[in-house]
Amino acid sequence: MNPTSPVLVPKPAWLNLPTAITLLRLGGIPWILLGLGLGSPLGEGLALWAFLLAAATDWLDGHLARRYGLVTDVGKVLDPLVDKLLVLAPLLGLLELRRIPAWGVFLLVGRELVIAGWRANQSQIRGANHWGKAKTVAQILAIALLILNWPIGIPCFWVAVALTLISGLAYLYTDHAASDASAGFAKERTPA
């Protein structure tokens, strides 16, 4: 082996363009918090654009992963985790600005922790269902309107809270039903 030749290290299978975009989405969080922390129209504009740009990349990474067959288990875990952080950051900033009540934020965060804990104990990682996607759209819309401090932001926030709770219950119900069905199938296949 030539001592001056570079050693090529194979790239991990999970490190692909969609996962890189997911990780880049984290870069929007400091800008969102900085913008909201400034407490000025310019700061709110910065927070809004950073949030919307980061939210748009959520659609992009999922689209690329599905279209080019780059869906990985790491991506299935990392994407929703980054999504939660992207929603939590502006909610905390909006909470500090007293634009939303703490108990509404608690319901959102509580649901996310319950689902994250549930997912951690599952052998197979499932993607979001239609309720989860509706919840995400409602949260993005509500946060954007709240950053703008438009009055319609509060009703949209409560719709997002309701969809967040409904999607969590739907996820647990369908996951539990799928677990029961697969357990029943395994019992049928096991010789007595």
The SSE string, one letter per element, is HHHHHHH
Q: Biggest sheet: strands, sense, closure? A: none
**Structural class, from secondary structure content?**
mainly alpha
Mean pLDDT: 85
Number of distinct beta strands: 0
Broad shape:
globular
Share of β-strand residues: under 5%
Q: What is the count of helical runs?
A: 7
- Rounded to the nearest angstrom, the distance between the terminal CA atoms is 59 Å
What are the segments in which pLDDT stays under 50 over at least 5 consecutive residues? 185-192
Fraction in helix? over 70%
**What is the CA-atom radius of gyration, in angstroms?**
20 Å
Give an overview of the whole structure.
With 192 residues, this protein is mainly α. Helix 6 (130-147) runs antiparallel to helix 7. 76% of the residues lie in helices and 0% in strands.
Overview features:
globular; mainly alpha; 192 residues; disordered C terminus
